[in-house]
Description:
Blueprint: H1 9-28, E1 39-50, E2 54-61, E3 72-73, E4 76-78, E5 92-93, H2 97-104, H3 111-125, H4 138-147, H5 152-158, E6 163-164, E7 169-175, E8 183-192, E9 206-212, H6 214-222, H7 230-239, H8 245-254, E10 259-260, E11 262-264, E12 271-273, E13 289-292
Parallel strand pairs: 1-8, 5-6
Antiparallel strand pairs: 1-2, 1-4, 2-3, 2-9, 7-8, 7-13, 10-13, 11-12
Helix pairs in contact: 6-7
Amino acid sequence: MTKPDSIDTSSANALQRQARANIDRRYANLDFDPESVPVSAAATVMLLEDRPDLHVLLLRRTQGVVFAPDNWVFPGGRVDPVDHQADFDAVCSGLSDKKASTMLGVSDGGLAWWLACCRETLEEAGLLLVTDTSGVDVNALRHAVQNDEGVFVDQLLNNGLSIDAAAIQEVARFITPPGSPRRFDARFFVARAPAGQEPVHDDGEIVDWEWIRPADALARWRAGEFQMMSPTVRMLACLLPHVSADSVIDMANLRLPPQPVRVGDPAHGYHVLLPGETGYAEASTEIEFGEVRLWSTPEMPSSGPDS
């Protein structure tokens, strides 16, 4: 990484005041109390595939949803009560709940985030993140889970399937700032796409999907063709140094210390920055709440759609 910028105290203080003013103005236009919105646990996954160079799966959300309408996102969603199991070992291999909980900094039930990640990926993209789907009707299993998400674990067990949790690595955490009608404490994971499966969207919450190079997704975001939330942009930028899925997975397996994000130029480009990137030292700590483990990254894209 490059050496962090030296701190210009006067500039940093001015940006912090500007950030606070922007937040206050955003609150003033809301028709609800932003502090009353609960923060829900969530899990999302960057699915990678070499086609032949590195591609990532993005899904397009319908305009009819409350949270992130018409946004391109990674598969994922809320961690629901059905994802908390009394016996995770029956359905997950490669990682104990104790270790998963330690990784996430929770007392227990850490593997619920892995289960939610896999369940949501099946519901939204029709992809089943298990080691072997031979003889399994993935589409039928998906429809069953869409009708009742509580049957996900039973469906896995009935089909003799288990999730290799060690193959799904947690790499980031973002908490939706106050001001949104929905707020999430989202863990970001990374995994290879399951072999022999192709995404299928449901024309409900998800209306389109695309395998895309991270650089191309960012170029389309800059051009205003892709609407994406700032954590999505940030995590796509974290993939830029990598030429293959193996490269990303190898870095994820290192579990580097998480680096806190800051926001530079919040009134215009709204760049989510990591330590060592230009402008980080003076950037705001009050707008975006997140930390990233895939932090050996190049500079963020130089511009993007106005926020």
